[in-house]
Design goal:
This protein is an alpha+beta fold. The protein has 3 domains: about 200 residues, 3-Layer(bba) Sandwich (FAD/NAD(P)-binding domain); about 130 residues, D-Amino Acid Oxidase, Chain A, domain 2; about 55 residues, no CATH class. The chain contains 12 helices and 22 strands. The strands form 5 sheets. Strands 5, 6, 14, 15, 16, 17, 18 and 19 form an 8-stranded mixed sheet that branches. It is globular, with a radius of gyration of 22 Å. The chain binds flavin-adenine dinucleotide (FAD). Flavin-adenine dinucleotide binds next to helix 1, strand 2, strand 9 and helix 8.
Length: about 450
C-alpha cells in the first residue's frame, strides 16, 4: 500500500508505541518513534518500563493480533525459547475454592519475558522502511497549530546531553503511547483544554518478582502457576511462569500488605502458597534481585468524552486505559487498539475527524476488559462497593466455586480471560444455570 500521508510521530517505544509505529508505517511516508530511554541492543530491562522485570504473557487474543501485525512472530519467539502453552492444560490454577481441572483446550498462550518481546518487536519495527527510532529523547510538549485547535508536532529534549538540546518535530499525526507516565493531561491543559475525567480502581495490590534459573539435572516441578486473590479472605497470590531458557519468573502479589522484599520474606510468602511452588523454586537457583511494582491501579481516562479534542492527536495503550496486571490484558488491548487504528485508516484514510472516530471506538473496545478488572478489584477498595460490583463479585465467587468440578465452566472462564469471549459469556445460559443452582443440587 502506498503512503497517503507524510509524517507521524509516536511518543514512547513500549509495546503500544511499537504496535502503533508498525501500523502507521503502512499509511505514512515516515514515522518517527521517540523514546526517552536509550534502548538496549538486546533483551535487557530498561528504566522507562519498570514492569519489564515482572512476568508477561501473550494471552490468546493478543497473540493472534500480534501475529497478524508481525507475521511469524510466534515462531520467532519460540525459536528464542519462549514456549507456546495450552492455557487450561499447562497452567496450574489454584483458586481459593480448589484446583481447576487440567484439560486440553486449544487456548494457546505464549509466556515470554517482556525484554525479549520488546527487543524482537523493536527489531521488526526498525526494519520497516518508513520508521526511525529516536532514543534518549523526551517529548516535553505538544506544538499547537496556527488555529490553536490542532497539534502540528512535538517539542523534544535530548536526555543526557549537556547542555540539554531542545528541538521541535512537526508531523501531521502525533500518537501518545507514553504508558502510565504519559503527560497528556498536562499537555492538553497547556493547549487550554480541560482535564479529562478519570476512573480509577485501586485494589491496593503490590508485586514482588524474582527470577529462578534452572539447575542442570534438577527435577523442576511445574512450569506455570496462577493463584488468584479473592476478596476478602485470599489476600495473597502469585503468578509463576517459565519463559525462555527455562527461567521461572515468580511474581508474588498481596492486597493491602507490603509485598515481600527480603530473601526471608519471599521464602515465607512462597511457603504459604500452593504446596508445589516451594518445590518448584527449591529446584532452581534464585537470582538475588527482588523487583517491586506497586502501580497496579486500574485507570481509565475518558479522553473520548472531551468535547474539544485537538486535530492530529491520538492516544493509546496504558496512557488511556491501564489495568491491574493480574489480568494480563494490557498488551492484548494495545494490539487491538493498533489494529483498530489500522482498520479505520484503511476504511477512511482522511486524517480529518480521525481522533474522534478512533477514540469513540477505542472506548468501546476497552470497556469489556475494564469491567472484568474493575468489577473484581472494586471490592478491595475501602468502603461499600457499588451494587453492580457487589453483584459481579457474588456471581464470580459462585462461578469460581464451580470451577474445580466443572471443566465446562473453567473452559468458558479461560476463554474470557484470554479475551476470546466477552465477560458476557460468563452469563451464558449453560453457565448461569449452574451458577444459580450450585449448592442447591446434591
Ligand atoms: C507487573 C506487570 C505485569 C504485566 N503483565 C502483563 C501480561 O502478562 N500481559 C499483558 O498483556 N500485559 C501485561 N502488563 C501490562 C503491559 O506491561 C502494558 O499494558 C503494555 O506494556 C502496554 O504499555 P504501553 O506501551 O502503553 O506503555 P509502556 O510499556 O509503559 O511504554 C511507555 C513507553 O513510553 C516511554 N515514554 C513515556 N513518556 C515519554 C516521553 N515523554 N517521551 C518519550 N518517551 C516516553 C517510556 O519510556 C516507555 O518506553 C503488565 C504490567 C505490569 C505492570
Amino acid at each position: 500500500m502506498g503512503a497517503r500521508h507524510e509524517h507521524a510521530v509516536v511518543i514512547g517505544a513500549g509495546i503500544a508505541g511499537l504496535l502503533a509505529a508498525r501500523v502507521l508505517a503502512d499509511h505514512f511516508a515516515t514515522v518517527t518513534l521517540i523514546e526517552r530511554d536509550r534502548l538496549p541492543d538486546g533483551p535487557t530491562p530498561r528504566p522507562g518500563t519498570p514492569q519489564d522485570r515482572h512476568p508477561h504473557g501473550l494471552l490468546t487474543r493478543g497473540a493472534e493480533v500480534f501475529e497478524s501485525l508481525f507475521p511469524g512472530l510466534r515462531a520467532e519467539l519460540r525459536a528464542e525459547g519462549a514456549p507456546v502453552i495450552d492455557f487450561c492444560q499447562d497452567v496450574r490454577f489454584r483458586f481459593a475454592t480448589g484446583l481447576a481441572p487440567q484439560l486440553a483446550s486449544g487456548i494457546l498462550a505464549q509466556p515470554v519475558s517482556r525484554p525479549l518481546l520488546e527487543y524482537i518487536l523493536r527489531r521488526r519495527v526498525r526494519a520497516l522502511g518508513p520508521v526511525t527510532i529516536r532514543t534518549g529523547c523526551r517529548v516535553t510538549a505538544l506544538l499547537p497549530d496556527q488555529t490553536g485547535r490542532g497539534v502540528r508536532g512535538v517539542r523534544v529534549l535530548a536526555c543526557g546531553d549537556r547542555p540539554l538540546q531542545a528541538t521541535t518535530i512537526t508531523a501531521q499525526l502525533v500518537v501518545d503511547a507514553g504508558g502510565r507516565s504519559s503527560r497528556l493531561p498536562a499537555w492538553l491543559a497547556d493547549l487550554g483544554l480541560p482535564l479529562p475525567r478519570q476512573t480509577t480502581v485501586d485494589p491496593g495490590v503490590g508485586y514482588a518478582t524474582r527470577v529462578y534459573l534452572p539447575q542442570p539435572g534438577a527435577v523442576t516441578g511445574y512450569q506455570h502457576l496462577v493463584q488468584p486473590l479473592r476478596h476478602p479472605d485470599a489476600r495473597r497470590g502469585c503468578f509463576a511462569t517459565t519463559v525462555e531458557n527455562g527461567r521461572l519468573l515468580l511474581a508474588l502479589h498481596a492486597a493491602h500488605e507490603r509485598a515481600p522484599r527480603t530473601d526471608e520474606e519471599f521464602t515465607a510468602f512462597v511457603a504459604a502458597l500452593d504446596p508445589g511452588l516451594a518445590e518448584a523454586t527449591a529446584a532452581r537457583q534464585p537470582a538475588p534481585e527482588i523487583a517491586q511494582y506497586s502501580r497496579a491501579v486500574n485507570r481509565r481516562v475518558h479522553y473520548h468524552r472531551l468535547r474539544h479534542w485537538p486535530a492530529g492527536l491520538l492516544v493509546l495503550g496504558d496512557a488511556v486505559c491501564a489495568f491491574n496486571p493480574i489480568y494480563g490484558q494490557g498488551m492484548a488491548v494495545a494490539a487491538l487498539e493498533a489494529r483498530l487504528l489500522d482498520r479505520i485508516l484503511n476504511r477512511r484514510p482522511r486524517l480529518t475527524g480521525l481522533p474522534r472516530r478512533f477514540h469513540r471506538r477505542q472506548a468501546r473496545l476497552t470497556l469489556a476488559p475494564w469491567l472484568l478488572a474493575a468489577a473484581s478489584d472494586r471490592c478491595w477498595q475501602p468502603g461499600r462497593p457499588p451494587l453492580a460490583a457487589r453483584a459481579a463479585r457474588w456471581y464470580l465467587r459462585r462461578l469460581q466455586r464451580l470451577i474445580p468440578s466443572s471443566p465446562t465452566v473453567f473452559h468458558r472462564f479461560a476463554r474470557v480471560l484470554n479475551m476470546l469471549d466477552s465477560p458476557v459469556a460468563l452469563a451464558h445460559p449453560s453457565v448461569l444455570w449452574r451458577v444459580l443452582t450450585a449448592g442447591r443440587r446434591p
